[in-house]
Specification:
The complex is a heterodimer of chains A (157) and B (91). Chain A is α+β, with helices and mostly antiparallel strands and 157 residues long. Chain A has one domain: Ubiquitin Conjugating Enzyme (Roll). Chain A starts with a helix and ends with a strand. Helices cover 25% and strands 29% of the residues of chain B. Chain B contains 2 helices and 4 strands; from the N terminus they run αββαββ. Chain B is globular. Classes of the chains: A alpha+beta (157), B alpha+beta (91). At the A-B interface, helix 3 of A face strand 4 of B.
Chain lengths: 157, 91
């Protein structure tokens, strides 16, 4: 069932408010929320090699569905290209150009992702979702992954 | 008297810390010799996080705590804050 846009908007605003402390702490730049399409971007810098990563969120039908998360090339502005993604020691940042996790709408087969075994509604209750049940938790996971030398392997090529 | 002494001795062996998560903060007392992995497990249970996350605890200075080490080995004090994060499992 589709979530009324005003409901999603209210939730996203509330969750973005909760990101402000960590945004200041870690130097994230959060763009203004485009209320028309419920999208925003977050720029963050790897403390390891100073590479810039721009994460794009689209939150229509949130929280019935998880956000549609992608990366934007900070130079070309192209979204959803391999060079926009970080590389990690595991498959979280997947070579299919997506975050392979239940918190990422792009990972579901409905959105051409590899996971036909997951359901969009109830994504928060998927055991593999762990604690990544809100925007702040997702941003922290991404940031930690570009901040820890054992995990971060530079920009995806 | 002995009881009080024993209580104080017991308190000396414990540490009350605040664990910050994206679901809220949790103040709890642990044995100083508790391992970081045990604190992570307790936090998962307290907040109902699933077993399949990729969980870490971080010190206030950003250092990631090693799961096999004890709380006391990090020289924590009562009231210190730790940050609980889930890096997400790769699936």
């Amino acid at each position: 069932m589709a979530v009324d846009k005003t409901v999603s908007l209210s939730i996203v605003k509330s969750e973005l408010d909760k990101c402000q402390g960590d945004a200041e702490k870690y130097g994230w730049e959060i763009s203004p929320l485009d209320e028309g399409v419920l999208s925003f971007k977050v720029k963050m810098i790897s403390p390891i090699d100073k590479e810039i990563f721009v994460v794009s969120f689209k939150c229509d039908n949130y929280r019935e569905w998880p956000p549609y998360i992608d990366f934007v090339d900070p130079v070309s502005g192209q979204e959803g290209v391999k060079n926009a993604y970080p590389l990690s020691s595991d498959g979280f940042f997947h070579q299919n150009i997506l975050i392979c996790h239940p918190c990422s709408r792009k990972a579901y087969a409905n959105f051409k992702g590899p996971h036909g075994d997951w359901d969009l509604p109830g994504w928060e209750n998927n055991a593999k979702t762990g604690a990544l049940k809100n925007i702040l938790a997702i941003l922290l996971a991404i940031y930690e992954r570009i901040s820890q030398p054992e995990i971060y392997k530079g920009r995806m090529k | 008297m002995n009881h009080d002494h024993g209580h104080e001795h017991g308190h000396d062996q414990e540490l009350t810390i605040v664990i910050e998560t994206t679901q809220g903060n949790w103040e709890e007392t642990f044995a100083k010799t508790a391992k970081v992995s045990e604190v992570i497990e307790a936090t998962k249970q307290h907040f109902g996080f699933s077993q399949e996350g990729n969980y870490q605890l971080k010190l206030a200075n950003g250092e990631t705590m090693r799961p096999e080490r004890t709380l006391v080995s990090y020289h924590l004090k009562d009231g210190d804050h730790l940050t609980f994060v889930d890096l997400g499992v790769a699936v």
